[in-house]
Prior knowledge:
Blueprint lengths: L1 H15 L21 E6 L2 E7 L5 H12 L10 E2 L3 E4 L41 E4 L14 E4 L11 E8 L1 H6 L6 E6 L1
Antiparallel strand pairs: 1-2, 1-8, 2-7, 3-4, 4-6, 5-6, 5-7
Amino acid sequence: xxxxxxxxxxxxxxxxxxxxxxxxxxxxxxxxxxxxxxxxxxxxxxxxxxxxxxxxxxxxxxxxxxxxxxxxxxxxxxxxxxxxxxxxxxxxxxxxxxxxxxxxxxxxxxxxxxxxxxxxxxxxxxxxxxxxxxxxxxxxxxxxxxxxxxxxxxxxxxxxxxxxxxxxxxxxxxxxxxxxxxxxxxxxxx
Length: 190
């Protein structure tokens, strides 16, 4: 149920976006914030490099980097794949027998969510390649934990509702090819 709420929230916001917004990303200015470390996700389809943006959401980026350094995301599956986005970050996705619970897990005890505890909704526009921290529909943004999504298309309806933790700098072709059940085989930071 939580998985449905989490993924439906993001999916609903994406579905609301009109197709005309796809070309609008180039015309929008993005806040000038310094880039942080780059997280490299090696997947079954290739590499995805995510430049973190600690100036936009410092605590959310710190959690993402903490989990990446601890290999938390290794061997997790992309459990939610839509034409508009891909999502991962649920440790339950390592277990095929728990598919009905995918989207509900987190980095806390017994794989339960461990909320960051602050709402760091971003002013940066949600354009193609933006990486956002997901949270469950009906819960506040400060309940976000380990799950994140990567946009395949821009979605201004997400602006101001989620924390932007990074942007894909290499591997958007890989993002476009990711299918449900594809696995993150290795995570590194450069």
